[in-house]
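Morning F.,

Quick status update on the modeling queue. The single chain you submitted on Monday has been processed. Sequence for confirmation:
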Amino acid sequence: MIDVTAAAQHRYTVNLSILFSELPLLERPAAAAAAGFTAAELWWPFGESATPAQAELDALRKAFTDAGVRLTGLNFLDDLSLGVRGTVSVPAAKDRFRANVPVAAGLAASLGTKALNALYGNRVEGVDPAEQDALALENLVLAARAAHEIGAILLVEALNRPESPDYPLVSAAAAVEVVDKVNAATGLGNAKFLCDLYHLAMNGEDLAAVIDTYADRFGHVQIADKPGRNEPGTGGLDFEDLFARLTAAGYTGRIGLEYRPSTGVSADSFEWLPRELRSAG
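Structure tokens below.
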């Protein structure tokens, strides 16, 4: 179990797209509540559908409200169900992404969600990377403005090269560069870096240096142990040190549990985090 002193300095939110995925989507908020969590986050939960039916949106909203679980983070259309890594920079997904922005923002607003993540998207063969980057900036500006309208932040995430070889943002510096461009374009300052410590570790980055350098730019932090992407304590990352460093750097946001349970049973993967620390507060 992670040292309670280090872990107790933070609040946690459980990612219901990867945890409790052994259950149907609408049952996951209640399962999270039963495990002691009061906050959760989601990748885009409707697959490749950018504009799901109102009944689907209402059912998901009801599942969260009935469970008493707050949705703290939501992806814009990400096409993860298709094996893609986001739609922001993908020309073929331009219309779908833009149709999704008000839908995702509307769902977020109705559930008090204050963080929206826009995955950048893979490089597309035969398309100039500069063209993709220009499209990404246009789309991220739209997304940042939509987030601002509901009092939310926009997150930009770095993934890891071994698992996402066609995704261009594979370092903290690359993601922060995009964040800076979005903020310069909007003047809103609500674009932030989503620091996923697992992805950065898989890229070989010095996590202590990332925290020291960019903590004031973090909009959210996510964790999983390396190399298996399982719960803390199953791999080689020193979470006691990482939690302490986040505290020392002044990070006060939530930490998203975005890992695969090592046994395949999500409810059994939280022993490292005492139940009294699972409530987001």
